[in-house]
Amino acid sequence: MDQFNNVDLEFANFEDYVEFEFSDFEDEEQQTVPENPPRRNTYNTDSDSDSDCEDDFQTSNVKTDTSAFEARNGKDIQGIPWEKLNYSRDEYRETRLKQYKNYECLTRSREDLDKECLEVEKGNSFYDFQFNTRLVKSTIAHFQLRNLLWATSKHDVYLMQNYSVMHWSSLLQRGKEVLNVAKPVIPTLKHCGLAHPVSRVQISTMAVKENLMVAGGFHGELLCKNLNHSGVAFCSKITTDDSAITNAVDVFRNPSGSLRVIAANNDSQVRVFDAENFASLGCFKYDWSVNNASVSPDGKLLAVLGDSTEGLIADANTGKVTGNLKGHLDYSFSSAWHPNGQILATGNQDTTCRLWDIRNLSESIAVLKGRMGAIRSLKFTSDGKFLAMAEPADFVHIFDSHSGYVQSQEIDIFGEIAGLSFSPDTEALFVGVADRTYGSLLEFTRKHYYQYLDSMI
């Protein structure tokens, strides 16, 4: 991945690296809505990572929220007051589409690539807008890494905000800090030779699965915290390479059922750890920086993507390459496995997502196109019905796999997208937006069609 020296973590100034520079809207609301919403208690960003002070955000400031009812009555879902501006939403969208510059380095012309892409019907509605809050807002440490939000239920979401991992309860509509890495972190796990204290961490990627929160750092750090326990069980710099950003982390179960943690780094290596004692179980070396690694649902296969137009399929136990993925024109940064383990989705800076049938890797089975930018985040629902695809800014696409991915819903918003996540029960979709004024957490709920009710009317 490209090197990026982060100076301002809170809202990274990407400058030459920027994929989309989103200027704040000039309106009266900037004076009335504070950048950091008021809270019930004073919140100290340098507090201990698991303090018991219950510093919840204040939820009474309704100006920061937008409900489904308000949206149905004409309010912008992000609370942007278009009626006070000198241009309409449609005019601003048109301008952004014209001015947007995707960060890319294509190996060949995209003319042939565009011909490969599926023609998709975008007018579907699979998930309805439910709620938007600005009481928590995502922040991004590196412009190419956007896996910074995870939902563990339809009411529970974890996201990065500055030097904190925040938990948002959509049921209670309030947020709480669960991990603070603004000052040194000391591991609580004893008798682990790999564990070492780490200083102030800029979290670049994260995952929350199996009650385990795993985060990767800008300088090769790895942190693991059990959500039911205080403190951080394991933390360490897992590489000493000068450019060893932890680009991706994943939590999975191997074929025998043991819980594992995997980390992909800029030093071209993928490392596997036992999630119980964090012993090192393997270190796989590849020919280029690994930007993303994910394990198949059965724990047997490893998808390895990075600074190459080609992707790899490897044995998750040994790291041995068993297949190649050829077709993308640029570097890849995201992947997702269909729950059946037979389909792999890969997201690339060439603005496409390719779908691969693991049983025949000679070519991708479908190519899905974004509107304007790289594909930075991919997630399947747990039932395999939908695939969500996020661009770096403004657009999230939801594809119906049962239609062959030709039916889709396009979520059109404004702002950098820090991550997206379906709830495990598929009922909710959360999207994190990073912006100084309109940074927020968006919630959508799955639409159901109860035909038996229609028959009763």
Describe the structure.
- With 457 residues, the protein is mainly β.
- It has a domain at 82-180 and 286-446: Neuraminidase.
- The protein has helices at 29-32, 68-72, 89-99, 111-116, 451-454, and strands at residues 65-67, 127-133, 149-151, 156-161, 164-169, 174-180, 203-209, 212-217, 221-226, 234-237, 246-253, 259-265, 269-274, 280-285, 290-295, 301-306, 311-315, 321-325, 332-337, 343-348, 352-357, 366-369, 377-380, 386-390, 393-400, 408-422, 428-434, 440-446.
What is the secondary structure topology, with strand pairs?
Blueprint: H1 29-32, E1 65-67, H2 68-72, H3 89-99, H4 111-116, E2 127-133, E3 149-151, E4 156-161, E5 164-169, E6 174-180, E7 203-209, E8 212-217, E9 221-226, E10 234-237, E11 246-253, E12 259-265, E13 269-274, E14 280-285, E15 290-295, E16 301-306, E17 311-315, E18 321-325, E19 332-337, E20 343-348, E21 352-357, E22 366-369, E23 377-380, E24 386-390, E25 393-400, E26 408-422, E27 428-434, E28 440-446, H5 451-454
Antiparallel strand pairs: 1-2, 2-28, 3-4, 4-5, 5-6, 7-8, 8-9, 9-10, 11-12, 12-13, 13-14, 15-16, 16-17, 17-18, 19-20, 20-21, 21-22, 23-24, 24-25, 25-26, 26-27, 27-28
Runs with pLDDT <50, length 5+? 5-62
Number of strands: 28
The level-1 CATH class of one domain: Mainly Beta
Query: What characteristic shape results from the CA principal axes?
Result: globular
What structural class do you assign from the helix and strand content?
mainly beta
Quick check: average pLDDT? 87
The CATH architecture assignment of one domain turns out to be 6 Propeller
